[in-house]
Amino acid sequence: MRQDQGEWREIKFHDYAAIFKIPGLYEHLFHDLLRCQSPAVVRRLLEEEVDREGGERTRLRVLDVGAGNGLMAEELSDWGVGFTVGVDILPEAAEAAHRDRAGVYKDYHVLDLAHLSPRERGALRESEFNVLTCVAALGFADIPPRAFREAYNSIVPGGWVAITLKEEFLQGDDRSGYCRLIRDLSGSGALEARTSRRYLHRLGARGEAYHYVAMTGKKVHDA
Ligand SMILES: C[S@@+](CC[C@H](N)C(=O)[O-])C[C@H]1O[C@@H](n2cnc3c(N)ncnc32)[C@H](O)[C@@H]1O
């Protein structure tokens, strides 16, 4: 939240750069004040699914998209995944992750997934990621569907997908493009959906509740 001419307004994408520059500010705003729970919710959901299938967490090679300053990677590291590579459009996010959570990422790329060069695309695919996480980054005009599709196509068939989406994005009148994308992924057989859980993502600037949906699934083929 931020005060503009006496009015509180929601944080927009470009505010993140300034927030990430100040150690602890992102955690204080979103997690202490606005009670964001998304990284912990997604970790639990993914953990349950991987355990249910008898998968080995140490074999997980995670691509964490919209990685920010590394809160999701910290959850994954505590759980004991093989490794996590972060991607974010903001250099300030990468700097904050290195500064505040050194070691939780094996690597961190500052990339605009909506406009990848063939070389960048090839480099991501070479890593053969078998998990895609995208947490608290599909909600407030953050990552566009086109960029998400690139991320989806960067993991191997059989890989896990674990994301959170603003619940309005799943409704018929949604204009973000996500409702259609998720429907296409399932309808075309590109994604085998597993779990879906509605939860309180965080509070808004005026104390209102923002509900998101955390989803897991298995990629079958490219989108
Ligand atoms: C609310 S933060 C979430 C950070 C982290 N996943 C977490 O759970 O704390 C959203 C992040 O998405 C990133 N982002 C927005 N648009 C993006 C894009 N097109 N490509 C990559 N990252 C993007 C922002 O820079 C920001 O770091």
Give an overview of the whole structure:
The longest helix is centred in the first third of the chain and has 15 residues. It contains eight helices and nine strands. The chain is 35% helix and 28% strand. The chain has one domain: 3-Layer(aba) Sandwich (Rossmann fold). With 223 residues, the chain is of the alpha/beta class. The strands form two sheets. A seven-stranded mixed beta sheet has the order 5-4-3-6-7-9-8, with helices on both faces. A two-stranded antiparallel sheet has the order 1-2. The structure holds S-adenosylmethionine. S-adenosylmethionine binds next to helix 3, helix 4 and strand 4.
Descriptive terms for the model:
223 residues; Rossmann fold; seven-stranded mixed β-sheet; two-stranded antiparallel ribbon; 8 helices; binds S-adenosylmethionine; methyltransferase
What is the mean pLDDT?
Answer: 92
Compute the separation of the termini in Å: 35 Å
Rg result: 17 Å
CATH architectural grouping: 3-Layer(aba) Sandwich
Question: What structural class do you assign from the helix and strand content?
Answer: alpha/beta
Bound molecules: S-adenosylmethionine
Number of helices: 8
Classified in CATH, the superfamily is Vaccinia Virus protein VP39
CATH topology: Rossmann fold
Ranges where pLDDT stays below 50 over 5 or more residues in a row are none
Number of spatially distinct domains: 1
Envelope shape: globular
Number of strands: 9
Helix-residue proportion: 25-40%
- Work out the strand percent: 25-35%
Biggest beta sheet summary? 7 strands, mixed
